[in-house]
Amino acid sequence: MDAQEPGRLTPALILFGAPGSGKGTQARLLRQQCLNGPHISTGDMLRQHIEARDLIGLDIEGRMRAGRLVSDELVNRLVEERIQQPDCRDGFILDGYPRTLNQAAVLRDFAAARGVDPYVVHLIVDYDKLVARLSGRRQCPVCGTLYSLSTNPPKVPGVCDLDGTALVTREDDREPVIRERLEQYELQTRPLLEYFQRVGVAMFEIQGAGATPDAIAKCICGKLAVSGRTVR
Ligand code: ADP
Question: Considering the domain boundaries, does residue 2 fall inside one?
Fold first, then answer.
């Protein structure tokens, strides 16, 4: 991002919503439909450390399996490093970050210092739907594509449509870990909505259920186009 043209801000989409609200799915669709820049999922980054069995992974595994948040210090550092990579220069999509007031404040300072313009898309989904979605969720461990047993099943049961890999259930997509994650969201993350409003971050409210993922993405792109934030 250092090579920014003077006066031009780097747009940073914060995809915001409860676990199961569709952040990961929408990030992928928005990149296909109307936005540039990498999809940065802190959950995926943390899971990669667990899979690699490195020091960070060993340290966070217990908390993640229990559905609790990992430390602000670690996540802030990982994200700061990631968003300084050259592929973030023209914009990026944050999925799962910030998730606490500390993270939001750190991101805000970083954004002010580096010419980043954060804006929020808030995916609104009812609690009951979230629980149903999370318990029926399956993911391709290779390409990351998400499926839902009820609304978006793979063509062949248990197998990724794109690369044929056997789908997996995430360790934390099991009861009662789902309840714990939703509780953490209510306690630690939902209050950020008020924070964003207070500090004047632009916010777009979107119904994240009741339409296909594709239609929801089109709706988001439409709102972003009106505000001049899309690239195509
Ligand atoms: P979801 O949004 O469906 O909960 P994620 O993949 O974003 O899924 O997150 C999975 C887990 O990773 C969280 O329950 C938490 O343990 C950890 N995590 C992800 N992002 C953060 C973050 N910004 N701060 C702290 N912990 C995080």
Answer: no
